[in-house]
Amino acid sequence: MIRYLARKLLIYLVTFFVAVTIDWAIPRSMPGNPIEQLLARMHAQPESQRVLTSYYSKAFGFDVPLWKQYLNFWVALFHGDLGVSIANFPTPVWELIRGAFPYTLALLVPAILLSFWAGNKVGALAARRKGLDNTVLPVSYVLTATPQMWLGIMLAWVFAITLGYFPVSGAYGLTLQPAWSFGFVGSFLHHWVLPFLALFLVSFGGWAIGMRNMIIYELEADYSNYLAALGAPTKLVRKYAYRNALLPQITGLALALGAVVAGAIVVEIVFSYPGLGTLTLNALQNRDYFLIQGIFLFLIMGVLIANLVIDIAYVFIDPRTRVGMQGGS
Amino acid sequence: MAVSKQRVGMAPAGAPLAAEAPTPLAPAGAPPAVGRKGRSEFVYFAFRNWKFVFGLCVVLGFLALAIFGPMFTAHKPLDFAGPTDARPSHAYWFGTTSYGQDVYSQFVYGLRSAFLVGAVGGGIAWLLGAGIGFTAGYRSGWLDDVLSMLTNVVLVIPTLAILIIVAAYLHVHSYATEAILVGLTSWPWAARAVRAQTFSLKTRDFVDIARLSGRKTRQIIVTEIAPNMSSYLLMMFILLFGGAILIGASLDFLGLGPATSVSLGLMMNNAYAASALLLGSWWWFLPPGIGIIGIVGAFYVMNVGLDEIFNPKLREL
Amino acid sequence: MSLRVDDLTVYYQSLRGDVKAVDGATFEIADGEIMGLAGESGCGKSTLGKSLIRFDTRMRYVRGSVELDGKELPVWDDARMNPFRFQEVSLIPQYALSALNPTRRIGKMAVELLKSRGVEIDTVMPEFKRRLKLVGLPQDILERFPIELSGGMKQRVVMVLSSVLDPSLLVADEVTSALDVSTQRAVAELLVEFRDRGFVKSMIVITHDLSVLYQVADSILVMYAGKLAEKATADTIVRDSRHPYTRLLLSSLPEVGVRFAERRLKGIPGRPPSLLAPPTGCRFKARCPFATEKCDEQPPFCVLEPGHEAACWNVEAA
Q1: B158, B271, C110, C126: least CB-packed within 10 angstroms?
Q2: What is the ipTM of this complex?
């Protein structure tokens, strides 16, 4: 078990290192000077430009040699300092992220967990009932092929604009302030439903298909046939099949995280949901490089941590890992 | 999965299709019959499988639309063509945008970009994935360790995050560039799947026999292993194709794709930015999604059909 | 009489029609008898064995009856067969090496299986452990996962588990085929021991290996292309078989200690007929050196002497 987790941890550390390096290196290897571009947008006078250039060079750390910039980057990172936003100067990047992050989390976590649970359950059911299978399969295929932002747009159009059941933007009513009050929570949930559904439905489709195929495969396995030959009730056979089919699904959960995060970003944009997605869009439109970098790093760290959590959970679910063997793949 | 795969594993963008692609996670069935008999057997079963036929027809239909549609449009996609926000009519089949552009024309040009990104992006990812995965699986040893580490690292990094960073700085100018970027980031799951499949094939008896009879490594690869993986590789390519389209659409939606031409994702972006939602111009944002769902969904269905064709155990009685 | 099978006919459904895997099998097994079921691959012996306990999804019951200890065994009815499975009829499957759930410890899986069959755990488990010890498995095996065991160990676990409820009939399907020669002997001897100790009453041992059957079986039933060819005591089969197929089969076996300088091992030229559209009459006639025109009519499986039956028009000539 320790070896299994240690190996995973090593991969994540290397990944983190590579990601941070990429994050640091790319802006500096791209054509163009971010300070110049910033000043160009400011339409500053030539003299002010000179002063501002040296000021920004210092502020953004461009005045030291490259290798030192790299080291400083790491040092700052460990202090939780992700730099300062260009567009929202002088707000630190971390502060912007911290404000947006909870909203993204509020969408992501329920969407991931619920779609995984519901998708697997429905997939398993479809595997044994032909009638259900004939509806679940085509629907799930359509859902997995659906781009999340388009689903968001369609949901918004049907349920918010046309039918008016739900609001179309924001995380809560315009007149409200975040607080732990019934009014706020109610409004929050009201605004939350559609973006959540856009994420949930697409992921649900994928899990349902995956689980259905895995269950069929497990039900045909030798151990299932043996149990049936010895007269075991279908309930026991299905229980074993479900448990075994869940293992690769959990591995798949780790792989799917990237896709769900990408989905959350675009869905948030559609609904102007004040999470990391909208923040990213603003950063891109404003060419706010440091904010983009900061969000990138934050996402990477989040995904890495989530992967680690899933790996730990896997250890508990696949008993073979505890005995020192690599279970599953 | 489980291609049963071992049904191939998964992770095209959009959703994990764990048992969609043949993967080590889902064991592959016995290697399909190969050779002259194999090819005619494939044709026999292929066109009897309605999922494969249906999927193929839909894809070909969209492809035809993508190739020939733009030749017959009255207006160029970005030109001012007529009244703004016009509903679908005889003159404008899909209506017009808030800038007076012909939506239908944008749609068929957008289909072209979709297929381009899918083919090139999927193709690059396929080459990388198959190449790296196969080398890692066949050679083992330190080469395997290095390649596996590389695969795992690129795998964990969220694709869109990398693409955002790169595209934000690189200012993508053409769909080919976008496709290359997409291809360079979506190969890891394919590499993993191919590696596992290679492992399992490598230990099969017929490879040992070939080795014992003194065949060279390359010969073994070409004559013994590759044919048995060919079905697997085909299905993987289809999944990568579909996945590339989806990722490309997300990039375009974020405004990171080329700005001078049209894509389905960009259509959605423009529609959203121009408040088409509030205006109720459904003809603007509905078609691009339908196009993507149509192509990608048809690919997935085709894949299910291919799985049944290649794996005799799955064939319906 | 322990087992009585009458005209059992089981076909496989396939895209191109019915594969006539088992056609009109009629035989009896006495209490305490170990009957070997031998034949080439694809002759239907596995199908016959499987049909006595559980039909595959593609197997189709056509006709025939099975009687165990005087009671009818409703092999064609999956639901009604269930009470018999494990308790009266049990199976050591061909895939025994992968028959155990890979993610469950062996002890836990056994307990869950037994409980689900409504068996008293407190009485059966100690017996189960005792028998595991008897076959030479360590006590801690119940705590292990299947992946930790060798092939031979897994085989023995499955053997013990399948017979733990003392079934009247145990079908052992190719239990020695995947093992090396010395383990084969050990496993074969175990089978006999199970019967001697009364763990099982009668046994059907399915294999293509006649030499194993000679060591283990009391009687041998030879099948060819879905039909029964010959049945007699093991001794009679080996020394005085009458069916041309059996004789050719035996002569293609190498003998220990015998060397031939000029002769070669005789195989049986030709291949078994397709079971989709088997030839009318005797199915062996295409490869039989004694075939005559009479063989176009299916020879009945009839008694030559008490305890010796064969299906051939030319039993005198062979």
Answers
A1: C126
A2: 0.91
